[in-house]
Amino acid sequence: MAGIAGKAMRQVYGETLVELGKSNPNIVVFDADVANSTRTILFGEAYPDRFFDVGIAEMNMAAMAAGISTTGMIPFVNTFACFMVLRCGDPIRSLVAYTKLNVKLAGTYAGLSDSYDGASHHSILDIAFMRALPNMVVICPADAADMKAATEIAVQYKGPVYLRIHRNECPDIPENDNQPFVLGKGKVLRDGKDITLVATGYMVHRAMEAATKLQTKGVSARVVNIHTIKPLDAELLQTCAKETGGIVVAEEHSIHGGLGGAVAEAIGRLYPVPIEFVGVRDTFAESGDYQSLLEKYGLTSQHIVKAAEEVLKKKGARA
Amino acid sequence: MGLTKERKAVLEGLCKQFRRTLLDTLYSVQTGHPGGSLSATEIITTLYFEVMKVDPKNPTWEDRDRFVLAKGHAAPMLYIALAEKGFFPKEELKTLRQLNSRLQGHPCALKTPGVEPSTGPLGLGLSAALGMGLGAKIQGKQFYTYVLLGDGEIQEGIVWEAAMAGAKYGIDNVVAILDKNGVQLDGPVDQIMPLGDVKAKWNSFGWNTLEVNGHKVEEIYDSIQEAHRLKGKPTIIIAHTVKGKGVSFMEGKHAWHGKPISKAEYEAAIQELEGGR
Ligand SMILES: Cc1ncc(C[n+]2csc(CCOP(=O)(O)OP(=O)(O)O)c2C)c(N)n1
Ligand SMILES: [Mg+2]
């Protein structure tokens, strides 16, 4: 993965779009006055005639993209994740998802990663909205390599795709990058038999840290990267529930309606085991530096360890 | 009826002080939006120190005039004005955008005394202001609602939905001010999404329009008085401004929309502001 290691996801996304644009003349890119942040500015510089910055008018952008997709082009729609849901929401539901249009939606600055701008710019409900839409594929990459693969797959796949993109540099996860990225298939990054840590996005890295911490406490934790939240790899989750008997779900999102909800829905039906949720707990966050926010709002590896201990307790009480 | 010489000097002095405080604050926290705060300095200062009836001791006094910062990213300049007014201690400005601060990156009505509706996501402020104006009218209250919009911001469709509603209901106790600095985040407004003839647009939507130099406190003041006199329709004051006004290397540059300020840049800016150009 030379060249992209450790880079910010949004930068990798921008560079990958440029690469894809070279061989695929049908790719067009829309932005709504945040091209420098989304990094689509790179595409705009490379292919100015296939780049449309429509100004601060997100709803119009999404609806135009829906229209252009019906002519055989492959539009990428770009804005902050919070505006993707809140401003583009109607055209995404009523045009893109309803008609299963070939539109790619890239929401950047996901989770708390736009930390200083504050709660108005954080995006902790986008997974809930996107995964409630029929026909929508929801992808949340864990690192630079995932991001690149996800962008490529978004072009290959015919239909609506939501890419959830993080703002900051993110550490590479070697155990993640030596496995192929297959749409709809989770990746087991670390084996374990006592509990499964299911994570998505940047929380995958933190789950790996948590597993190491748990090991020093004598707990063998499995780590699964669910990069495709929809369609969900329910089969893998069922196996994990069966084999480890307990699950912690970790995501940089509200604990309501995100990956936690998706896993609970699947596990509750297929193979119920104790489950805990690491995420933002029904509150607006606030401005602050990113690390401090993660600590205050419960999103560190330590929080995953604590949640794992809760699950192990419940497991013990049952046995 | 206009501003006296003395008041004009006082307001200009405050603007100078506020620009300096803005630079100090944004430099110290290394985050926040300088460009749109600087273009709005005279507008916010004139409103809070000459026009609006507010009570810092009682921020929720029901007859207070309201100010809606629709372009919420200019929050630092609003906070500086509120602190000077006495809504909260000036020392708190140092906590801007930091964990546990009352001063959020974008205005949060729940956290900061004196802040009206929470803003940040662009485009919602004008509608909110019209709702406040309508509420005042229905209840026979005398307060005014002022709302400051960005010129990139008015690309949002909802702004024009609000424009129609304001005209239909004759919400003349709302005064909108457009910070027409010609620059948005990605570049000049004319390149990103041209607005066409802004004055003609608002007129055709049924609004009174006034035009001023948005860096002249006396013009801003006069135009607001004129807006108060105009009845039956809402008024928008088109304020011609310069993004980054007062710091020459920031002026008119979209790069300074929301960029951290380096030590050398800070020092150069302060020298220029102190020198008074
Ligand atoms: C709905 C929405 N889209 C995008 C943004 C990101 N954003 C923040 S400020 C800004 C540019 C604003 O330009 P303008 O309204 O002209 O403000 P000013 O020049 O006065 O700073 C953008 C795109 C946002 N805050 N809200
Ligand atoms: Mg502007």
Arithmetic mean of pLDDT of chain B: 97
CATH fold field value of chain B: Rossmann fold
How many strands, what sense, and barrel or not for the largest sheet of chain A? 7 strands, mixed
| Annotation, overall tally of beta strands of chain A | 12
CATH class of the largest domain in chain A: Alpha Beta
Biggest pleated-sheet summary of chain B: 5 strands, parallel
CATH level-3 fold name of the largest domain in chain A: Rossmann fold
Helix and strand sequence of chain A: HEHHEHEHHEHEHEHEEHEEHEHEHH
Distance N to C terminus of chain A:
44 Å
DSSP, total strands of chain B:
5
CATH H-level name of chain B... which superfamily? Thiamin diphosphate (ThDP)-binding fold, Pyr/PP domains
How many helices of chain A? 14
Q: SS-based structural class of chain A?
A: alpha/beta
Structural class of chain B: alpha/beta
Structure characterization notes:
The complex is a heterodimer of chains A (319) and B (277). The mean pLDDT of chain A is 97. Chain A folds into two domains: 9-164, 3-Layer(aba) Sandwich (Rossmann fold), CATH 3.40.50; 176-318, 3-Layer(aba) Sandwich (Rossmann fold). In chain A, 43% of the residues lie in helices and 18% in strands. By secondary structure, chain A is of the alpha/beta class. Chain A has helices at residues 9-23, 35-38, 41-46, 58-69, 81-86, 89-97, 126-131, 144-156, 174-177, 203-216, 234-244, 259-270, 290-296, 301-318, and strands spanning 27-31, 51-53, 74-80, 104-108, 137-139, 161-164, 187-190, 195-199, 221-225, 228-230, 247-254, 275-280. Chain A is globular. Chain B is α/β, with parallel strands linked by helices. Chain B has a single domain (5-274), classed as 3-Layer(aba) Sandwich (Rossmann fold), CATH 3.40.50.970. Chain B is built from ten helices and five strands, in the order αααβααβαβααβαβα. Chain B has a five-stranded parallel beta sheet with strand order 1-2-3-5-4, sandwiched between helices. In chain B, strand 2 (145-150), helix 6 and strand 3 form a beta-alpha-beta unit. In chain B, 53% of the residues are buried. The model of chain B has no long low-confidence stretch (mean pLDDT 97). Classes of the chains: A alpha/beta (319), B alpha/beta (277). The interface between A and B is medium-sized, with 31 and 31 residues. The structure holds thiamine diphosphate and magnesium ion (MG). Thiamine diphosphate (TPP) sits between chains B (35-36, 39, 71, 73, 120-123, 150-153, 179, 181, 183-185, 243, 257) and A (33-34, 56, 83, 87). Thiamine diphosphate sits between chains B (35-36, 39, 71, 73, 120-123, 150-153, 179, 181, 183-185, 243, 257) and A (33-34, 56, 83, 87).
